Amino acid sequence: MIYFFNSLAAVTVKSSRLVFLLVMLEFFVLSLIMLGVMNLDFVMYFFTLTMSVISSVTGLLVLLVILKSYGEDLLIL
Q1: What's the number of domains the chain is made of?
Q2: Contacts of 66 (CB under 8 A, 6+ apart)
């Protein structure tokens, strides 16, 4: 159980770095929109794509941690 929480903390740190970089990228794209460089439709598509990637990567990382920490117990069953 302790291994599970340690792994989850490590995954949270890694995914929070990724989320921070993606949020910075979002702000960069939004600043380009304010300047009139990019189209709003592209930004909405980009924002939706980024959010779906963040949620799926975070879900996969949590699932990987669960399988890693409980894998031995599942093999016994």
Answers
A1: 1
A2: 4
Q: How far apart, in whole angstroms, are the C-alpha atoms of residue 69 and residue 61?
A: 12
Residue 11 has pLDDT above 70, yes or no: no
* Main-chain phi, psi angles of 39, to 5 degrees: -90, 145
| DSSP secondary structure, 37-56, as one string | -S-HHHHHHHHHHHHHHHHH
6 band by pLDDT with thresholds 50, 70 and 90: low
C-alpha–C-alpha distance, residues 3 and 74, integer Å: 16
pLDDT band at 72 (very low <50, low <70, confident <90, very high): low
16: containing domain:
2-76
If we measure between CA atoms, which residue out of 70, 69, 63 comes closest to residue 7?
69
